[in-house]
Amino acid sequence: MLQTMLRSRENFEEIYETNVDMVYRICFTYLKNTADTEDMVQNTFIKLMEQSDSFQSKEHVKAWLIVTAGNLCKNHLKHWWSKRSPVEDWNLPVFMEEEDTREVMDALWEIPEKYRITLYLHYFEGYKSKEIAEMLGISHSTVRTHLERGREALKNKLGGGFIDGK
User: Fold this and answer.
1) CB burial class (10 A; 0-12, 13-18, 19+) of residue 125?
2) Residues 109 and 42 in one domain
3) Are residues 4 and 39 in the same domain?
4) What is the DSSP string of 61-99?
5) How many domains are there within the chain?
6) In this structure, are residues 138 and 127 in contact, taking their beta carbons and an 8 Å threshold?
7) Residue 5: is its pLDDT beyond 50?
8) Are residues 102 and 88 both part of a single domain?
9) pLDDT tens digits for range 16-50
10) d(CA 145, CA 138)
11) CB 128: neighbour CB atoms within 10 A?
């Protein structure tokens, strides 16, 4: 069981090393600045250490991390301080420095959040729409609608040649 894994430092470190980049990307997609992103990544893994429920598999841990990171970021964005402090840090982290990825991420940040996170989980993390629906707690048809509308928004931002409609 993974619960016993979390109790040992080495296994927690393994989970951390395996998932930290993914959690960072999720948080950065929401927050758009490195300082807040690093804080929310740290908070996500603190919550994991405090978690007492058992996990069924490594995929269950990954899904839990995605949902927890997303919820922490949403809560952070609702805080009064976030609304008062302007986003100044638009420097992209290392994983986004490739020209094509940077162009897509720039366009992705300009579309509504509900489409942005759905597209990110589908295209960058490789989740299927049913898995995304379970993670985000929305219906499968809503995810498909978000993917369709998000792709359309990206096509408009990127000039139409990016996504082939899958």
Assistant:
1) middle
2) no
3) yes
4) HHHHHHHHHHHHHHHHHHSHHHHHS-----PPPGGG-SH
5) 2
6) no
7) no
8) no
9) 999 999 999 999 888 888 888 999 999 999 999 88
10) 11
11) 12
Residues 104-142: tens digit of each pLDDT:
777 777 888 888 888 888 888 888 999 888 888 889 999
- Could you give the CA distance from residue 64 to residue 80 in angstroms, rounded to a whole number? 26
Q: Which residue has the tokens 């927890």?
A: 68
Q: Which amino acid is at 31?
A: L
CA–CA distance, 124 with 139 (Å, rounded to integer): 21
Whether residue 7 sits in one domain with residue 78: yes
Q: Which domain holds residue 41?
A: 1-95
Concatenating the DSSP letter of every residue in 114-152 gives HHHHHHIIIIIS---HHHHHHHHT--HHHHHHHHHHHHH
What single-letter amino acid sits at 7?
Answer: R
How far CA 152 is from CA of 82, 117, 145, in Å, comes to 29, 15, 11
